[in-house]
## 1
Amino acid sequence: MYHKINFFKFKKLIPIALIFLVANQAQAEEFSVNYSVSSQVNETITGTVTDQDGSKIEGAKVTVLETGATAMTDASGNFSISASIGQTLSISYDGYGSQTMKISSTSISVSLKSKKEATSIEEVTLVGYGSQKKSDLTGAISQLKAENFKEGMNISVDNLMQGKVAGVRIVQTSGEPGAGVNVSIRGIGSIRSGSTPLFVVDGVPLSNDAVSAQSPNVGLGNTSAKNPLNFLNTSDIESITVLKDASAAAIYGARGSNGVVLVTTKRGKKGEPMFTYDTYLGFSSVIKKLDLMAADEYRAAGINKLYDHGGNTDWQDEIYRNAVSSNHSVSFSRSTDTGNYFASLSHLDQDGIVLNSGFKRTTARLNAEESFFDNKRLKIKLNLTASDIKETGIPNGGNAGSDGQVIIHALMANPTRSVYDETGGYTNFNMNAHYNPLYLLSIYNDKTNTFRVLGNTEATLRILPGLNYKFNLGIDKTMSERNTTIYPNVTDRTPKGMYVQANLDSYNVLLEHYLTYDFNLNRHNFNVLGGFSYQKFKSTGTYFGVKDIAAQGAGIAPELNPGYSGTAFVPGAGYAQENELQSYFGRVNYNFDKKYLLTASLRADGSTRFGKNNKYGYFPSVAVGWTVSNENFLKDSQLINELKLRGSWGQTGNQEVPNKITQASSSLTQAAGYYLYDNLNLINGVSINRTVNPDLKWEVVEQTNIGADFSLLKNKLYGSLEYYHKTTKDPILNIPSRPLSPTSTVWKNVDAKIVNKGFEFSLGSEIIKNENFTWNFDVNGATVNNVVKDLPVSAIYSGEVSGPGLSGVTANIYKNGYEAGSFYMYNYLGVDANGKYIYEDINADGRIDQNDRKIFEGAIPNFTFGINSYMKYKKFDFAFSFIGQTGGYLVNNTALDLNINNLASDRNVLKNFYDSGANFTNQPQLSSLYLEKSDFLRLNNVRLGYTFDINQLKFLRSINLYVSAQNLFTITSYTGYDPLVDTNKQVGGNQSLGIDYTTYPSAKTFILGATVKF
């Protein structure tokens, strides 16, 4: 039958082909007897395709039925095709009914009608191990599509969610390109096990462990971990789905307590093959400068005359630069009757705004899907991405103290000093723990190369109608090498130089089998899922170091030949970690008459991380929904188009704890040694390092969610409302052990609770939609109230503060009745007549000591929000987004290092400290003087674009040119660089929250870009 059909079409094409050939070789009048030239000669037919509201449709397929010639509409809905008057056009577009029409003129217009009036409730949304119509969802799920995150320069997928999803907070640990990002969903739920959600990329759950080699300490501290998600090319991402409540996330069991983020990459779409080239050029500068004393102000402050060095230097201008970034990405996509294909190649080169810092990434991706056998019975899908990342770092370790941070050296540097001395070399400050920041950058070299491959193969077999078996095999492999050098120098930080090479190999393999069965019994609709999952994680690391190396520029660089000079001091050290997760899961979705919904799931997870008495944890959930708008009394409502009420309860787990903590650990040490023989030689004894706890189990998060989804006024106003109550139980802590235990601390679950509760809303409106102008606007917001309960110890401390004389001082406290990570410090009241600081005497004993510290509100903002707008007028497009927060606080540890006492020690100070009248002799103390509100409103992104339709060139569909800006302005009272920051200052593994210590600043960026479609 296949050949007959094609032969039939071929026969119909014969006369048309003959006419075309003959008409080009003879006079038309010679054939007037047999053919009508006016109706058969091909002409250029142009037209426009719109929807029923008059909006232009891009990607509609136009086919001449008689010849099979095809064309696709461009971004303005226009097409051009060769055909003859009287022939028939077929116009089709996914989601719309196809339309045929006779060609009566060379210019036509077509209006397509949707197969079913499109509403948000009919959209398909990803869920764990499958997808559902939005109308059938019972959990709190938010989905972003590619069009939601076009604007801006974003290295990592988590940045794309900023301000777009209610209840999701994105906080940078550093503004350095590729640096880590803290993502929290619905508050902070753990003291030490982390609050990062589980990321699942194309069906493969990723580990939240570091995938690039850790920064060694060569005397300047350890820099913060890089973002494990920075290997993905954000242009390849099709959608991001956030599972927020337990009903949605419980199918991921032991790793769903902090929420789940599903990332899906692009595939070939229906229509003609598409070739796309995306490029941009970005220009970045520091988001703001701190208000330090200038050279003239410094001299006029009454400082010691020895501290006037005769120069005039703005040290912030010296270390910060106008950075240039470029990105090039090409992609090809195609869809056939049996499958689809997507391939891309990209290169990103981003300079950091601090000298010597940068990020380069090259990625390649191939996504393919093909169907086999009768009626596509078997589907094979392949997702493969590879990335090569090269990073150059700076000495800015969060644990280095004031003497190891290049940024704090620049901020503290006396403005009367010069960068260079009379000989043209760097000026030597000749001070302990304080150096010329440009010199420090010149003697430090830190390069990391990370190669990562993530891929998976899925096979789906339709066993019976509605019954499908799926197999998923995934592999995540990373190899990373980091070379860190500090050359011999004139400072007191490793003056003879040091080189360290660190290597990391990580391997993650996933194996899954599951069945899905969809069936209907009259008005009863069922979807049943059951499966098995096994995942193994393995990481190994090696490192070695050489000290007393050759001077910079002498001989061969250590990273090229570590054996050229120096003495090995770390001879081939290494480590290995391995853990496994075995899971069984099931879920039932039930729908009666498209009105009443029920979802129930259960997952059992077994992990090698936990004790033999609690290898398995069980995580159930249940949710119900009522689609009120499908009831008879609302079916004809002109006000309410969609209304669904839903509620859920469930439990999820958190296994983000160190490996092996349930097992005993011991070592041979001299401290535990004894004298066995008469020769008095000391024999090493056994020292117990860790107490066994076979009862250790998962932290459990229990969550209740009540929500409503709605669409009003013919879908002009739509959104959702949520109330959630989320409680973390059985938190895992390393707490003091009982008397006579072999170690002073033990890992165990305690009876404490961390409660997060609040409201979320998402509201949107298609304010205007007509042929020439479209305007969509949405706003989202979330509240959170966080409190610690039933902690079995009086308090847990974290958040180590850096600064002279502040060793061992902490800023965070976990205590019953207070927010997690609240601040604990002296209460600053002002200055007295002599300029001395005044602190509140809490216990009224006439002196200020540790007993006078007070608990203040913490870092978690009680309200976060985002505002997003998109407009399109003819060929112009304009979009902007705002983000903001209120109710949180930050400890400005940078300001603490720039305290008034610096004027007495040849260092600079924040101008407002001098203006306050404080005495130079005041010693720095952690107090509320350095506690500031982190409230802000930021224009996060703005973009203006124009699309050119290239009708003259058939191979070129459209060109979109745009200008964009990020972090254009921020309204805030915070005096640091950025109120949206969190430096990792943890103590004993307990999370620190809301500390800003000379963090690499954020950048303000302007972008010129283009998207070309072929």
## 2
Amino acid sequence: MISLRYHAVSITAVFLALAIGVFLGASGLSDRLLSAVSAQRDSLSTQVDKLTTERDNLAAAQRAADEFAARVGPAAVRGLLPGQTVTLVTVDADQADRDAVVGLLGKAGATVTGQLALTDAVADPARADQLRELTSQLLPSGAQLPAASDTGSLVGGLLGAVLLNRGGQPQTSPDQAQAVLSGLTGAGFVTPGDAPRPANLVVVLTGGALTGVDAGDAAAVTARMATQLDRSGAGAVLAGRTGSADATGAVGVARADRGATAGLSTVDDVDTGSGRVATVLALREELDGRAGRYGSATSADSGAAPAA
């Protein structure tokens, strides 16, 4: 007769055997998993090391290219713009880019007549109506605004009348120009500073890609302003930092509308030595009645820089 104790021992033995089997099976599975994970980790580590090396090599190559451009840049642009006058309009531009471009313009024989720094308010949709109204109020007698309703074109038309020469002569008097710039400064659209003297050419310096809900619209303001400035004088170059050729960058917006911006030259890597040289070379092309799209982005279909 099978006793209760026998049943208890049997059941215990069964569960003990099951537990041992599970443990042994799990141990083997665990070893296999650990082996697979370890192999995957080693593979990923190798890939990371490879990518890190490639990144470091690319960074080193970029530094070498910038150093080379910085050394040969002055020689490449020397004498290309003798007796020309250039004004700078900046929109969220980097000071180092500005200083480098100004230095190269001097080597090219040009005189920089000044800088006008626009504030973020120019591209603020909440202040668009105010800016449109202000451009009409400040428009000097005899000057005309473009037949457009967007703020970029209107601001470009207003600034073109006071910052740029036409046929080698100022389009407005010094008092008229000062009134316009004072009005824009007082409304918070221009950073306080000395008013630039009228020039033949203009460089619009900006940053990279913008972010935020209204990024594309903000970039369009700068692109359209630069386009109108190009039409107001002897030529303009819109130069932005790496990323400016993206869809939310001013250069990218300008290049997307080739019909409207055909006469405007663009540079998408002014934060590099080659991009700064390209900016000055592009001004020379503008004087010769040509325009191009330069830089390192895929949309720079004219190459890295114009031929010297």
## 3
Amino acid sequence: MSIARAAIDRSLLTWLLMLICLLGGVWGFATIGRLEDPAFTIKNAIVLTSYPGATAEEVAREVSEPLETAIQQMRELDVITSSNKPGLSRISVEIANTYDGSELPQIWDKLRARVSDAQSVLPADAGTSIVNDSFGDVYGIFYAITAPGFSDAEIHDIADFLRREILTVDGVADVSIMGLPEEAIFVEPEPAIVANLGVAPGAIVGAIADATSVVPAGSVEQAGQRIRIDAPSGSTSVDQIRNLTIGVGGEIVDLTDFATVSRGRTEEPAMIIRYDGQEAFTLGVSGKAGLNIVDVGNRVDERIAQLQPDIPVGVDLNPIYQQHVVVDEASNAFLLNLAMSVVIVIVVLALFMGWRSALVVGTTLLLTVVGTVFFMAIFGIEMERISLGALIIAMGMLVDNAIVVAEGMQSDMAHGKSSREAAEDTARKTQIPLLGATVIGIMAFAGIGLSPDATGEFLFSLFAVIGISLLLSWVLAITVSPLLAHYFFVTGSGDDGGAYDGPVFRAYAATLRVALRLRWLVVAGLLGLTVACYWGFGQVKQQFFPDSNTPLFYVHYKLPQGGSIKATAADMAVVEEWLSDRPEVTAFSTFIGGGASRFMLTYAPEEGLPTYGHLIIRTDTLEQIPDLRADLETFGRNALPQGEFRTERLAFGPGGGAPIAVRFSGPDPDVLRRLAREAEERMLAASDQLQDLRTDWRERELAILPIYDEGRSKTAGVTRSDVAQALQYATDGVRAGTYREDSRLIPILVRMPGASTEGGEHLIGQPVYSEAAQTSIPLEQLLDGFEYEAQDTLIQRRNRLPTITVEAGVPAGVNAAGVFTEIRGTVEEIALPEGYKLEWGGEFESSSDAQESLGRQLPISLLIMVLISILLFQKLRQPLVVWLLVPMAVNGVAIGLLATGLPFSFTALLGLLSLSGMLLKNGIVLVEEIDLTRADGVPFTRAVVEASTSRLRPVLLAAITTILGMVPLLSDAFFASMAVTIMGGLGFATILTMIAAPVFYYLVFPGERRAEKRAAA
């Protein structure tokens, strides 16, 4: 007994299957995790090491080099890069894409061990290296908190309160605070009084350190118990620090006799944040992995609402990004699109096959969709942009299985067969070809879904959902569809005429007979058309991932290297004032000194620099961004010519960075900068579509070099360290201790009055205290003056080699791939000295890496697909006919994309794979139908025509329903190019398939044609 007949005879089991799919789908919708984008592991860790006082070159040579040497021994390593600034090494460790997220904790432990082992070879003055493996944490609930009129201490208390309370919310993994005001206690001795009293700077620093340090005081044993002794408490207020006394020459001197003590903000904070131009700090909330972010976000909103009575009046929580709201809206909108697609399918089927067939196929399709959600929940596949899109991508293949079965049963029952006989006959002819074609359709996506890189991880849910839905559609097509057909289809008398006697079928049959007679002309026409379409496809714009449909875009602004954060903040205020007058701007957040917290997975924060300004701008609608962005770029470039001003759209998918980038690696910084300048000149000469050319080494920065006189200093008993400390005391200040205020640790700085505002002229007269002479000596007696030197203060290394990267953007709407093609040749012609190399980065590298990874997987998938097609027919000529159809998949794609002007993006590639799967499926079932018709003894030519005619309606219906089902996706920025790819490709190639497949079949059986001619003669 066949499966289809058993589904009717044992209907209870079939109804149970339907109930499981339906109720399971409802349960799945209620419990499944929801995200905006699929989670992919950011396989990066950051190693930070401070080296106070060192130049960028010394940091690179003495800190980064030994650490990189130790780290590169890890076999899991892919790329290691470092950014070296004066006093700080920042090493980025990227793990090879063959390791998945579950292996990372162990890899990070190994990284920590390597870094720890390397500490012994670092300079003694270098700090302990810190390994940050939470670089990829996403704080999707992101607020800017403004508190005008509150003191800095009160703002810190508010931040601590909010963080503490939100951390208690179920499902919250972490809460990140950024941009809090940075305070210090400033001790500023008067130089003249200090000199007269003979107070050594070290004595001041030591007294403050002793008064604020935490030291053990031991313990005693008493009555069998060990009792700890607390040390005398240190200074716990600014007034107590003012009242400190210092021993000088056997006398006690009050600190206030020669110094002022004050509390205030640091002049050069690490970061400044503003919201709508108002000072703010940010609060980012991340949810635990695998949970429904919508539920977590709603609980956070509820908790914040509960806290409102305890939050002081005037403190506002302004949402910058609310992932749970975005996910909820996107999921609902996409579910609506999915529902619209299903309704469109049912309406089309009702028009062309009647309401009974529409009910059978539509119910099967609905059960397939909800059943897929059920299995998604079981396997832990979240409902996000890619997994939901997979259902629509698979729609054509999902509906095709049910249409084939319903069409077959309807035809057989119209000829008088009972429903059981029709089910058995239809299943016998189609269930194995449909299964084989379904598996082939799944394997078309295996190369992407099983790719080990970030793109493969990002798109894994696509492969998983397509696999689940297609297999489930086959199961339901041969079980549920026959049962529903049994209930709803009417058995005919058998004398109602042929099922394919309509005018459309007769016209198609006549056309096909002509095509078979003119087969070589048809093949030549198909070949010429395909070649023309491939040429047209070469004219289609290329794109990696499309721009996001979230109404956000960014501003990046950089002053020349060496600028202060105050100057950057002042320039950003100019932009803020301009934005505040634009009615389409909903809100804007300003970050000065670094990027924002990673509030979405595809957002990559910039490295912290005082010269960097960043704006996140939200508009009312997506359509307002292009004009606003163009106006803003024009204003910013004109109003702030002293800096580099550029905007950037938020993009889907992994990637980020400059769209065009070329790297030069080699030992000499001067040669690297020369190569970079030559590359910039060649790029500008080759294309007028480049903008914002820059290097990641930025500009060289002036440094003041004291000319130290060894002889005079030795005579005076002064060391290099004494000179350096005196200069620090005269400028940034010397850290003397830590002031503790609840959980805060506030530095205490000893510095010269006015040190932060004076230029360098006062340095030459700065006194240096000589311990040997017990007196202060003017610095000019120890130096031969100062000189200026231009230094590299941002040295980038890649795989242990100094590497400079020339980066460039393209104007909005211009395709980066096309511009890259224009400049590639001339840049690669640059003569490289021995020991230097050139590599391309940017979008070209990202796309190439993804395609290379895909290319490694596709041959295996392709081999499996070919083997399945051969095993299905157990012959070679029939699979050859099927695979000859695949090249024609591009025909309609090229026409559709050229007509709409959309680029061929990575999502369009998914559409092309889906299209190939549909063509293969149609071809397999069509060729199988011809073989079965021939097996019934029908003459060869007539068998080809009759079998093809019998497949016309299901093929056209599957194509029409799929094409119309894509219509709701045309308004989705992520899926628009994919929708056009499937619509254009399927619409064009389906017509060709119904001609090409029979013609190819006719050609590969010359013996049958000759035998038919002999029989006719």
## 4
Amino acid sequence: MKAKLVSRLGTDVSAAVNGSPLRIYAPSLRTLPEGSLLVMATLPVIDWNDCLLRDLRALSDKGCVHIYAAMVMIDPFACWEDFRDLLKGAGISGVVNFPPASIIEWPTVGIPLSPGREIELRRMEWFASLNFKTMFAAATESEITVAERRLSSSLQGILHVREEDLAMRIEDEMELVSGGQQVLSIPQFSLSGATSSKETGRKKRE
């Protein structure tokens, strides 16, 4: 009997191989203090994209076809061409807007599309034009509808991010639970929290 293959949000790419489920690569999470809640990832306490950039520079081409690099797509200071080159150099062919603009900015009720969300979608469209696959993190069904229309064939998955998810404790490995295909013809996932194994807790880092 084959072991169950589990999709994850993780801080490294070492556990991802061809033929495995998708993996959201978020090395920036490991720079947060041990025991932090996921809400810390939405606050300006670290330079999220710079942490990813430094990690990418240390990677060689691993052919990570199922990896989606987690990026803040509304970063006004990012050099996106550097990300393009480093992602391709590492063999990473997917990007995801995590943490999403809708969680970072908390748009005003009644406004269907916040300015940050539009910037985010345009940046993801840019990655899609470069043949990157996209995964879209969203808090509402309306955001998913817009992403499906705007990202079209590049869109490979949806990550539902709920407000209550922000109270989860960050771990090096966080399982993604499949939400089925009730609305779209693409995979949908949600965070289930940290892995249950005591041995996969966050490692001490200098």
